[in-house]
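Notebook, p. 212. Picked up where the previous page left off. The plan for this session was modest: take the two constructs that came back from the sequencing core last week, fold each one, and keep the raw output in the notebook itself so nobody has to go hunting through shared drives later. Recording the first one now, exactly as returned: residue sequence, then the structure token string.
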Amino acid sequence: MQWSIDAAHSTVEFRVRHMGIATVRGQFKTFEARAELDDEDALQGLEATIDVKSIDTGVSQRDEHLRSPDFFDADRFGDITFRSRAVVADGANRYQVTGDLTIRDVTRPVTLAIEVTDIVTDPWGNRRIAGEASTVINRKDFGLTWNQVLEMGALLVGEDVRVHLEVEAVAPQEAAV
């Protein structure tokens, strides 16, 4: 059964090193996703689409640079997508989900470590589940290669990007009884 992500109660965040000394955080404000759960409410699959133009680091000039051809080239490659290929249970309410992540039309396998909550019923009778997922990707693997080497040898923008998602999903209405 496909559950829809409640974007109002979910976040797609990232962190990357700046000049080798600090961490810059950002998020994508617009995305949609679906989670597939089996009859026993075990995770079976995920797919997500993220609107690159919705990037927000809190600094508009940096956000515009990230949307530019130097990084995401949002006018040409408007979406980041993830489609799971394998889900492996990794303990109680934990999963390793491997899938295809596509950024700038470059697709690479990525594994998300996911921990989910038990299912609850909200005050309106909807069944909900939440989860946290994380992974680390190398941005250069996806064609995000712009950088500068600083005098001390550090990179202006780190290559490893830590991705963290916190999502809440809602069961289809017919399953919410």
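Okay, moving on. Second construct, recorded in the same format:
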Amino acid sequence: MVMMKTLRRGLLAGLCAGFFAALLFIVDYGPANSLNTVARWLGLDSSGSGRLVGFLLMLLLGAIFGALFSTATGRRDIALGRSLLLGVLTGAMEWIIVVYVLGDLVNHLRIDFGSWLFTFIPLLVYGLLLGSLSYQWRPRPA
């Protein structure tokens, strides 16, 4: 029961952080054109529905990595700095696994410096927000 609460809290924190990261992709280069890049990571982009798929993919990936983050931290009482650091590491791991490895395997994406910054920075912000929300929502001992 306690593990389920921890997992649910991580899912919710990851979903909220994923929503914010998706908003970072919306405000860049016109009306959500950057969300096609998110869908392209897994080869799911199209001209008609690429933006919606990219938005939903950011939410789904955010929830998955949020659950992994909460599973890794468990019920231990950790400090804010450590939570933020683990969140940033989670965002970096999301970039390595999804964008670099899966993007290369599925869609044969090549990463240059501009596209590296374009995808890496929002995912680091995602991780920072994930660590912050997870720390804020963690129950404190009485």
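Notes on construct two before I forget. The chain is about 75% helix and 0% strand.
Flagging for discussion at group meeting.
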